[in-house]
Amino acid sequence: MSLDTPGLVPRPATRPPRAARRVAGLLAIAAAPVLVLGVLFVLPVAGMVAEGFVVDGRFAPGAVLDVLARPRVHRVAWFTVWTSGVATLLAVVLGLPAAYALHRLALPGRAVVRAALLVPFVLPTVVVGVAFRQLLGEGGPLGFLGLDGTPVAIVCGLVFFNVAVVVRTVGVAWESLDPRPGQAAAALGASPWQVLRTVTLPALRPAIVGAASIVFLFCATAFGVVLTLGGVRYSTVETEIYLLTTTVFDLQAAAALSVLQIVVVVALLALAARLRATPDPTAQRAVAPARAVRRSDAPVVVATLLVLAAMLLPIVTLVLGSLSVGDGWGLDNYRALTTAGDDQALLVPVTTALLVSLRTAVDAMWMALLVGIVVSLIVTRRSHSVGERRVRSTLDGFFMLPLGVSAVTLGFGFLITLDRPPLDLRDSPLLVPMAQALVALPLVVRSLTPVLGGIDDRQRQAAASLGASPWRTLLTVDLPVVWKPVLAACGFAFAVSLGEFGATSFLARDTNPTLPVVIFRLIGHPGEANYGMALAASVVLAVVTAVVVLGVERLRVPGVGAF
C-alpha cells in the first residue's frame, strides 16, 4: 500500500521521552566514576567480606559468629564504644563554648584562632599520638599524672583530634541562626541561660547531634592515635584488625571484625545523613554579623582560651622535645633525619620518606579531585523528573560509601584482592595513592557539593539560551564560583594523604614508606636517638600539614563547613 493512499499518515520516528534521555545521559556520565569505585572500593571490600564468610570454598557464616563470640572481641568492642562515647561527650562540651565565641563574637584575631583549632583535626594521627606520648610520658610536662599508656591518654588524644569538628560544624550553624527569637525572649525577661536552653539549643540540635555522630564515627575508627598510645594492651576494633592481620596473621578474624565495623559505621552514617536532612530553619539564612564582646561573655571567652591552650600544649611539647638534646638544646635530631637511625632502624632515611609522602599526596590529590569534581557535578545538577532525582540520590549514596569503611579495612581489602591478575597492583607505584584518594574522596565531594548546589540554575539556563555550550556554561557560570572551593578541596585532599596511616600501613613497602609509617617504626625501635628522630620527623610532618591547612583556611567560603 502506498503512503499516498488517502487516510494514511506517516508515523514520525519514535524518540525516547526527554526524561529517559536525561537519565541515560546521567548514567553515561556517571559510568567512569562508578567503574573506578567498583574496582577500587567495591571489589576490595567484597573480597574482604568473602574472606570472613567463605571457608574452604564454602559459604560459612558461622565462622564470623565464632569470631564475634570471642571474649577478646567483646572487650575490644566495649573499649571502642566507651572510649568513643566519652571522647565524643568531652569534644561536644569543650567545643560548644568555642563555637559560640569564634562564630558569634567579634573577638580580635578570631580567624587565626579558628585556623589554629582546625590544625589538630588534620594533623596526622601518628603525630598526635607521638605528641601525647611526649606530653604524658616520663619526663613530659604532665608525666607526673601517670597517664601514659592508659585509656585516659587515648581519650585525651581523641578529644584533641575532634574538638575542631564540633567547633566548625556547630559554629557554622550558630552564625546563621536568626537572633530575633532570642532577642524577643530576652525582652520578655528570660535570662541568658534560659534563652540558651529554650531557644538557641533547640535550634542548634540538628547541628549538635550531627557533629556528635560524626565525632563518634571518627573516634570509633581512629587508628594511629590508639595504636601509638595504646599499643597492644588497649585495642579498638580498628587496631585489632591491624594486629590480627600483621601480627597474628588471622585473616578470617580480621575480616569478621571488618564486617562488624562496616555494619556499625554504615548505620552511624545513615543516622548522620538523616540528621542532616532534618529541616533546619537556619539553612537559608545569611551569615549573621558577629556582635561586640560583652562582660557577660567573659566565661565563654575564658573557656575558649583554655581550649586553645589545651590544643596547643601537646604541639608545643612535641616541638620542644624535638629540640632537646641531652641536657641542652640543638638541631641534632633534625640532622639525623638524613640517616637510617640507630641500629639501622630504617631502610631509608626520613628525608626520603618525606619526598615519598609528598609525591604520593600529589597523586592522591589529583585522583580524588578528578573523581570528586565529576561526582559533585553529577549529584548537584537539577533533576527534571522523579526518576532522575532518584538516580542522583542513589549515585550520591554510592559515592559516599568510602566514608562508611575505615582506612584500615580498605587497606586490608586492597591487600587481599588486588594481588592477582587481572588486577595485580601490588607492585604499582599508584597503589598507595589510589587508597589514599579513596579516603579523601568523600571530603572533596562534601567540600564542593554545597557550593555547586548553591549556584542558581537560572544562570545556567540564561547562558544556554544565549547559545553557550555546556562547556562554555561551565566555564562562565560555575568556574568563577567554585575555583576557590576547588583549591580548598585540593588542599584538604593533600593534607589527608600526607597523614594517612591506616590503609598505607598495609600497602607501603619497606623500601618506599611514607613519613607516618617511618615515624611509627622509629617509635617502635628502642633508643633515645630513634625517639628523637621520631619527634623531629613528627614536627616536620605537622608543619607541612599545618601550612597546607592554613592556606586552605584562607580560601574558606563563609557559611560552608569543612566537614
From TrEMBL:
One of the Pfam families matching this protein, by short name: BPD_transp_1
Major location category of this protein: membrane
Membrane-crossing residue ranges in chain numbering: 23-46, 76-99, 111-132, 152-174, 207-231, 251-275, 300-325, 345-378, 398-418, 430-452, 486-509, 529-552
Gene3D superfamilies: MetI-like
Membrane topology, from the record: Multi-pass membrane protein
Keywords: Cell inner membrane, Cell membrane, Membrane, Transmembrane, Transmembrane helix, Transport
Subcellular location field: Cell inner membrane; Cell membrane
Span of domain ABC transmembrane type-1: 77-270, 354-552
Family, as annotated: Belongs to the binding-protein-dependent transport system permease family.
Matching PANTHER family: INNER MEMBRANE ABC TRANSPORTER PERMEASE PROTEIN YDCV
Protein name, UniProt field: Iron ABC transporter permease
